[in-house]
Every structure is written in C-alpha cells, then in structure tokens.
Amino acid sequence: MVAEATTSSTALSGMTAICTYVGRSEKTVLDWIRLEGLPASKIGGVWESDKSLIDDWRRQRIVAGARDEYLRERAR
User: DSSP 3-state assignment of 34?
Assistant: First the structure.
C-alpha cells in the first residue's frame, strides 16, 4: 500500500512563497537562512519551508530581542 502524498496548508514551496510570507526580499531571506537560521532548505532544487516553523523562529527572535533590550536597560 502506497501512502498518498499530502501537502500541508502551512507548507511554503519556492523562494517567492517564502519571501511573500515573511514580507522580505530574496536577498534578505537568503541572508536570514545562511546567517540567522531561518528554517528553510533547498529540496530537489526547490526552496521549502513551513509557516509554523517560520512563526516559531520569529517568536524566538522577538523574545530574544526583548530580553536583550531589557538587559541593556538594566545595565544603564
């Protein structure tokens, strides 16, 4: 029995879809993938990601930024 392939409604396929979802240029998205750990991979020559993974990544960066700002304020 072969499992039927399904596509998650949160899947993002292609760099254009990823860029549109995050609202940034391809250069910025590629920099984020390479330098900041944005969760996306090239699979079979096509960039793939997932909305929920990107949302989690954004939340982690927001929390880290708020924590860093708080620590900077306390150090003054």
Answer: helix
